[in-house]
Structures are given as structure tokens and as C-alpha cells.
Amino acid sequence: DAGITQSPRYKITETGRQVTLMCHQTWSHSYMFWYRQDLGHGLRLIYYSAAADITDKGEVPDGYVVSRSKTENFPLTLESATRSQTSVYFCASSTSGRWVREQFFGPGTRLTVL
Amino acid sequence: AQSVSQHNHHVILSEAASLELGCNYSYGGTVNLFWYVQYPGQHLQLLLKYFSGDPLVKGIKGFEAEFIKSKFSFNLRKPSVQWSDTAEYFCAVNARGRTNFGNEKLTFGTGTRLTIIP
Questions:
Q1: Are the Cβ atoms of A99 and B101 closer than 8 angstroms?
Q2: I want to staple B109 with a disulfide (CB 3.0 to 4.6 A). Which of A35, A114, B4, B87 is the partner?
Q3: Pairing of strands A109-113, A10-13
């Protein structure tokens, strides 16, 4: 049972480049989420998705784009990377239902923008 | 919108000491509450959760938390910590609502770094 995986685990890129972080889950969870983790800020929600083709902004969406053509995949794209986007990015998923269930987290991607 | 406060940014304890990490949230309605742990270099894992019922919730590895509605608090406790409890701890809250979409988001606190000295 692979669960939730992220790739790459580490990425170094330059300012202005486009970067895509991948997230894949094998549980068929309806909901998927992207967070960034920064010292002093904890986890902040970037985007989330309730199902394929349904996405919405979170707390810090600027500079990011998401898509969800398939239930199991939820890629996050930095269209033109900036140094302020240097962070650790976590993908998470949860089951559907009236009330939220626990979110299951991937191993994270450490992104450095030079 | 809900918010979560974790006032202890860094806690240092000796092994066998008792632990209490504070978590306060601001939201007037019904909430689901969570504590997650992140061991060094690892992803977040669920420690425990509260949805309803007994306000004293027991989780994994001997952790427990008490929901006190009147204080908007969900403090994490452990009677005797171990070196392996060294980690970062996050409190999270989800506000229940009448609609399905949009209430699945978790709002996280900024985290408390716990260092256990052998």
C-alpha cells in the first residue's frame, strides 16, 4: 500500500523557472491538499481539491497553480519560481464525508529557489 | 474564519518529565480538533483527534488531550516523556458547517518544537 507519495523529494531551481511538484495517492480519497511549511508559520494551505476538476484556493495561493484531472493526482505548479517560495511542500489527502476526517500527509518536497 | 494558537514555541524537558502543550482556537461553532506530530525529517502523523463525545481523548504513544469547550482549548498531555518524543507538534482545527465543501480544510497552529534531554 503506497499511500501518498510526492516527487521529487528535493528540488533546486532558479528564480523565474517553472516547477511542478507531483502528488499521488492510492487510497481514492476525494480530498487533496497542498501545504507549505515555513519556520514560524506552521503549515499554510495553498490549494485544495474536493474531487477531480474541483479545486479552490487556500490561504496562500498566489504564484501557484493546481490541476486535478484524475482523482489520484494533484500536481502543484510554480509558474515562475521566486525565492520566497523556498519551502517544504506537503501534499495531503482525506476521505469525503460531511465532517472532515484526518488528513494523511505525504513525505514532503524540499524546494530551494536560488 | 477559525484560527489556532500554540503559545509554546519551543519546550525543553528532561526524560520522565510531564508534558502539556497548549492549543487554543477561535471559532464559535462546532469544531473537530487534531494533534499531529512531525518527527525530525519526517511527514506529519496523526497523534489523536476529537470529533465528539468524551472530551478526554487518548492517542498513540501515551498521548492524550482534553477538549475544554468553555476555554476553546485542546491541550496535549503526556505524563512521562521519552527522548523519542522529540519532535514538532501541531494542533489543527476544522470548523463544522452545514455544507460539505469548504469545511474540509484544517487550520494549523504554528507548531511547538519539543526537545527531550536524555
A1: no
A2: B4
A3: parallel
Distance CA B57, CA B34 (A): 10
Cβ B19 vs Cβ B11: under 8 Å: yes
B10-33: buried (b, 16+ CB within 10 Å) or exposed (e) per residue? ebebeeeeebebbbbbebeeebbb
Residues 6 or more apart in contact with residue B52 via CB below 8 angstroms = none
Cell numbers 487554543: residue: B24
The band of A69, judged by pLDDT with boundaries at 50, 70 and 90, is very high
Per-residue pLDDT tens digits for B41-67: 888 999 999 988 999 999 999 999 999
Chain centroid offset of residue A114 CA? 20
Contact (CB<8Å) B94/A99: yes
| pLDDT at site B101 | 47
Q: Give the span between the Cα atoms of A10 and A60, in whole angstroms.
A: 21
Residues 42-71 of A with CB under 8 A from B: 42-45, 48, 50, 54, 56, 58
CA atoms within 13 A on the CB side of B4: 29
